[in-house]
Amino acid sequence: MLAGLTGKIAVVTGGAGVIGAAVCDRLAREGAKVVVADLDEAAAKHVADTVGGGAIGVAADVSTPDGATACVDVAVAAFGRLDLLHANAGVECVVQPVADFDPGDYHKVFGVNVLGAFLSAQAAVRQLTAQGGGGQILFTASIAALMGTGGTSVYNASKHAVHGIARCLALEVAGTGIRVNTLAPGAVESRMMDALGAGLGAMAGADAAGFRTARTAALPLGRYATPEEIAATAAWILSDEVPYLHNEVVTVGGGMAPY
Predict the structure, then answer these.
(1) Does residue 75 sit in helix, strand or coil?
(2) Which domain holds residue 61?
C-alpha cells in the first residue's frame, strides 16, 4: 500500500475515461474515497460501482464554473472534506494542419482541456484553503505538453497550457501545504490514442495500423502503456511516498524523449 492514501477524499475528473477509471480504481484499492466525475453520468456511476469502496459517480461539465465546483461540493457533502484532486478530464483534437483547422474544434478542445483543468483546480484550491491542512492537485497533461507533432497543434497547445497553469499554481500555493504536480503520459492503450493514431497515420499516408507499428517501434520499451501503469504513477504522486515532489512534471513515456 502507498503511504497516506487510506481515508483520503479524492475527486477524479474525466473519471469514466480509460485513464480516469484506472486512477479511480487504484485510489479506491489504496483506501481512498473517490468521487468519479464525468460528463457521462451513467459511465461515472458505473465506474464508481465497479471500484467500490464507497465511491460516488457524478455528472459534471468541468468546463463550466458550476460543473467544476459541483465535483468538490459532492465530495464535501458526502465525506466532509477534500484531500486530492486529479484534474484529468480531456479530449483529443481533430488531426489537421494549422492552416486547415476549424476554430470550432479549437474552442472545444481548449474548453475541456484547459478551462476544465483551470476551473477544477480553482474549486479545489478554494476548498483546500478554507478547510486547511493542505492537500494535493495533480493535472493530467501529456508528453505532448513538452514537444510538437505535426497535425496536433491544438491538442499540444492545450496540454502546454495545462503545464503552464500547474507551474503557476504550484508557486501560488507553495507554503500552504498544497502540492501541485503534472502527469505527462506518452502513448497509452486507449480510444483517444487510437483516434489520434488514425489521424496522424492518414496525414503520413498510412493507415492506423501502420502508424501504430511505426510508433511502437520508435518507443524504447516497444509498446504502449497500459492505463493501469499510468494510474500507478498517478497514485504514487498523490500519495505521501514523495512529500517533496512539488511543481514537477512526471513523464510516463516508455523511454520516449520529449525534448
Answers:
(1) helix
(2) 9-187+226-252
Q: Are 50 and 124 in contact (CB under 8 A)?
A: no
* Residue 176 domain-assigned (yes or no): yes
Sign of CA dihedral 25, 111, 116, 142: positive
Catalytic residue among 155, 224, 244, 259: 155
Kind and range of the H or E run holding 57: strand 56-59
The answer to whether position 87 is within a domain reads: yes
Find where cell 506518452 sits. Answer: 186
pLDDT (tens digit per residue) in 110-167: 999 999 999 999 999 999 999 999 999 999 999 988 988 888 899 999 999 999 999 9
Q: What is the CA radius of gyration of the chain?
A: 18
CA atoms within 13 A on the CB side of 79: 21
pTM of the model as a whole: 0.95
Q: Which of 15, 180, 117 is nearest to 32 (CA)?
A: 15
**58 found inside a domain:** yes
Does 155 qualify as catalytic in the annotation?
yes
DSSP state of 174: T
Distance CA 35, CA 27 (A): 11
CATH assignment of the domain containing 120: 3.40.50.720
How many domains are contained in the chain? Answer: 1
Domain assignment of residue 27, yes or no: yes
Cα-based distances in Å from 167 to 12, 26, 37, 119, 249: 20, 26, 24, 15, 9
Nearest-CA neighbor of 10 among 63, 64, 78?
78
